[in-house]
Amino acid sequence: RPVLAGDYVVVQVKSRPSGEVEAYIKRLSRRTERWLYLDQLNPAGTTIKIAADTVVAVHKILWPKEIWGG
User: Fold this and answer.
1) Residues 36/48, Cβ–Cβ less than 8 Å
2) What pLDDT was estimated at residue 66?
3) Tens digits of per-residue pLDDT, 53-69?
4) pLDDT given at position 34
5) What integer pLDDT is reported at residue 44 of this predicted model?
6) 20 to 30 Å CA-CA from 51: which of 34, 35, 58, 63?
7) For the chain, what percent of residues have pLDDT higher than 90?
8) Are 63 and 18 in contact, with CB atoms under 8 Å apart?
9) Average per-residue pLDDT in the chain?
10) Using an 8 Å Cβ cutoff, are 9 and 25 in contact?
11) Residue 13: which of 61, 48, 63 has the closest Cα?
């Protein structure tokens, strides 16, 4: 399923300069060619931005009703 604004996601990011991959669970606010804007869950109301060229993958978190229906 495509990832849309408002979806909860796992974002895998390659950190610089070590090259290690880190993962974040956030709500996708918006996405541009250069940036991912993610809503911070705690504290609420904070948005962070991550450079798109550091993103390894974005995975949508599925809720039970999305998996099994209902």
Assistant:
1) no
2) 86
3) 999 999 999 988 888 88
4) 97
5) 84
6) 63
7) 71
8) no
9) 92
10) yes
11) 48
Residue at token pair 């599925």: 62
Q: Which is nearest to 39 in space by CA: 54, 28, 31, 25?
A: 28
d(CA 17, CA 6): 30
- What is the value of pTM for the model shown? 0.86
Q: Is 49 helix (H, G, I), strand (E, B) or coil?
A: strand
Residue 59, phi then psi, degrees to nearest 5: -120, 130
At 70, the amino acid letter reads G
Half-sphere exposure of 6 (CA within 13 A, CB side): 0
Cα(33)–Cα(28) distance, rounded to whole angstroms?
A: 14
- The size of the chain, in residues, is 70
pLDDT of residue 53: 95
